[in-house]
Amino acid sequence: xxxxxxxxxxxxxxxxxxxxxxxxxxxxxxxxxxxxxxxxxxxxxxxxxxxxxxxxxxxxxxxxxxxxxxxxxxxxxxxxxxxxxxxxxxxxxxxxxxxxxxxxxxxxxxxxxxxxxxxxxxxxxxxxxxxxxxxxxxxxxxxxxxxxxxxxxxxxxxxxxxxxxx
Length: 166
Prior knowledge:
Oligomer: single chain
Strand content: 25-35%
Number of helices: 3
């Protein structure tokens, strides 16, 4: 998964993301033969990406790529706290998988973080993420997420996954 996350980060960093129409903050990227990815970029270079590596049930995941290091390099993720605040709502603590420079929310039997995240995301215009890095002080990244519903629907369809919001 670590390699796949690094690939996702590299793809989203490319300037090739096509911007959506109609006031949506989301951009889209589709490599030859690969499922569609949707993402937004924060002013400080953070990225929120919805994607799958291969089509199929339970394949869609969310990855937030940080401009700062989150933990030392290892082969296995570390589950740590992350705080999410949608618009002016309360800051909610969740536990996501931390990698060296990214965090993931999955939709598996053991890890059900994606669905509640997406349910809040579709209603929001702004998302603030507070990271709890290993060995450094916490920091925040803010994203404009207007138009998330279309992005979610398009990614689930491209990934041939059952949309968790339906």
